[in-house]
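Our platform keeps sequence and structure together, in a single record for each protein. Nothing more is needed to write down the fold, since each code stands for a local backbone conformation. An entry from our holdings is shown next, in its original layout:
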Amino acid sequence: MEHPLPHRVSRLCGATLPDGAVVDIDIGRRDGHAVVTAIRPGFPSGELADTAIDLRGFVVLTAPAEPHAHLDKALSWDVLNPPFGDLGAAVESWRGGSAGLTEESFHRRATAAAAALLRNGTTAIRTHADILGGPDPLRGIRAIDRVRRELAGLLDIEIVALTPPTAEAALLDAALEAGADLVGGAPHLAPDPAAEVERLLTIAEAHGIGADLHVDEFLDGDHHTLAHFAERVRDWPSTRTRTAGHCCRLGTMDAAELAELLPAVARSGLGIVSLPITNLYLQGWDRPVATPRGLTALSALLAAGVPVAAGADNVRDPFNPVGRSDALETASLLITAGHLPPAQAVHLVTDGARAVLGLPAAGVRVGARAELLAVRGTGLLDIVANAPADRIVIRDGAIVSISRTDHRTAIFAELEFS
């Protein structure tokens, strides 16, 4: 039976968990939210109730959260036709090309990018949006705020005002009025990185809000700012967001320097966000032999007890020409390039990402929010390896997206059509 979407459900039957257990999952309402109320061994048979969903042959995960998107830049590669190149080339290409992009262009591309994330299972997004140059610097932020309002009930979207060093405080104030929730920026690109960290965090404090900064997105150099960021926010209220994205320089620090820095990061309450697909593309262009990779020190951060998440970052824009807007793509890269075990890689794009974003706990646990992703497959490694398109996305206990595929292959023609 076909149901209109969103379609609220009360039970998921025969679902496979990442540990291989097959269960039925009951969903109810508590304090205005859908939560998991019971989990029991499940092997459905016979007719199911109208609000029950047969998930035999599907693996069920906590719905992914995207901790670091750029919805304003997304899908602009074909529009801008930028050169291939490193971070500096991408920044220059975007600065020049974005001047010709209208608010409607930002809205159209951001809507398409958000819809792709939702189809693939993501139910919460934190996106950076540039304070642009020119006479209308807030048009990207306004466009994404409009997308947020249009997709309310399907996706949660949080906006970070990505602030250039040249932007005056009054312009950042206006960005927050236009819909931004957090202060952002890239201090390592400023003439005085430490002063830029101080400036941005002071503005955040004045507004009583958090900060999500691009931090140390380079492989070599002593102008890294993570230590300053950590020290500066150590005494912030525990509920105030403090997030550091990229942190590529950690991946090239020697062991002694890293060991000295990580305890301070852990004490600060900072969440670290790794962006494998973009930083694998952007970093290392200057070393064609034994090219270093642009990932942060994932294993060391996790061992130190630092909250870590991972995201897709840029999707088909000057900073990354590819990308599927799929958390399973990010998880796969964490395994192959980051050397994380599959369960840990998936954690960084699901429960770990939700924790860094400050979202309520979700997933297949009694009392957790019913934010779930069901992917057709035999087990956790199977769905990460194959990233099947057959998916059912559940937000707040309701199905908000269903994707199905149909395979017809010549070798099986007699079986399929006889």
